[in-house]
């Protein structure tokens, strides 16, 4: 056991900010100044980060590499999570080097710079078939099951990450908008999960079923794990796309955040991310909003808020 924090970003709704939050937590760790790192992380040095793009939409991969570079790499046979899942689903100890799939220091900071200490396990559009592959694949004579499903189907990502975990301080897994095998594998492999939501009624309503599903998975994994499995803890719910009036969430959204706090208490992040043009502008340039901080519009504000969310995340996961 090392002290790498593995964190999944989960919501079965799409467009709530999973990829945005994932991208900004990992890169934000490089952007914090030494004082902030000392306060919230206990070290001045920038931590080593691995991004896992666990979604066939490849949005995290594209945010990190830029679409042109990604497409070029795909054309040249880029090794991705799609292939890794296939290999590790079929065999417990495959003779494959996971390092060969990791893009080191490839995550863009700007047009000319990348983050030295952020690596990426990229996705592939065909990852969309992986859930189905998991469903139909069966090893003969496999005994250990969880409600009828062989346990090995939930441990594939964990077995992949186990091979590289000791090199990282943080692993962030960006999940697809579903709760099927890919997300279940992410939950199994993680210490923590974060739920980004839009501060609207339907988004808030959906939180309960996500928490209930992860609770249920935790119970099953514990039962099957003979004391080896450690529950995946909710770090918190992060409200995104919040609109402000006088530096406060507009009334309707303030009401929704309040309701969430009544139900989940500390389970709701104190900090939120506002809606603004900084994030989409940065996203179209394949860099985090921090790079555009100071450039006008809402980039500066969104950078500050995102770093506050990051510090809150660090404080919330400091002890375990
Ligand atoms: N706070 C925000 N302000 C403005 N646009 C945002 C914000 N958060 C996310 N977006 C944009 O909304 C879209 C969906 O966000 P994304 O992170 O891809 O969601 P998900 O991964 O949950 O599907 C993206 O185009 C992203 O750039
Ligand atoms: Mg996404």
Uncertain regions: pLDDT < 50 for 5+ in a row? none
Q: How do the helices and strands follow one another from N- to C-terminus? A: EHHEHHHEHEEHEHEHEEEHHH
How far is it from the N-terminal to the C-terminal residue, by CA? 12 Å
- Helix run count: 12
Supply the CATH architecture.
Answer: 3-Layer(aba) Sandwich
Secondary structure: number of strands: 10
List the helices and strands and how they pair.
Blueprint: E1 5-9, H1 18-31, H2 34-41, E2 49-53, H3 59-65, H4 67-75, H5 81-90, E3 118-121, H6 130-136, E4 145-146, E5 149-150, H7 156-162, E6 170-174, H8 181-189, E7 192-198, H9 201-225, E8 233-240, E9 244-245, E10 248-249, H10 251-264, H11 278-284, H12 299-316
Parallel strand pairs: 1-6, 1-7, 2-3, 2-6, 7-8
Antiparallel strand pairs: 4-5, 9-10
Helix pairs in contact: 1-3, 1-12, 3-4, 5-7, 7-8, 11-12
The structure holds adenosine-5'-diphosphate and magnesium ion.
Adenosine-5'-diphosphate (ADP) binds next to helix 1 and helix 11.
Structural write-up:
- With 320 residues, the protein is α/β, with parallel strands linked by helices.
- It has a single domain (5-316), classed as Rossmann fold, CATH 3.40.50.300.
- It has twelve helices and ten strands.
- The protein has helices spanning 18-31, 34-41, 59-65, 67-75, 81-90, 130-136, 156-162, 181-189, 201-225, 251-264, 278-284, 299-316, and strands at 5-9, 49-53, 118-121, 145-146, 149-150, 170-174, 192-198, 233-240, 244-245, 248-249.
- The strands form three sheets. Strands 3-2-6-1-7-8 form a six-stranded parallel β-sheet, with helices on both faces. A two-stranded antiparallel ribbon has the order 4-5. A two-stranded antiparallel sheet has the order 9-10.
- The longest helix is centred in the middle third of the chain and has 25 residues, at 201-225.
- Bound molecules: adenosine-5'-diphosphate and magnesium ion.
- The site of adenosine-5'-diphosphate (ADP) has 16 residues, from α1 and α11.
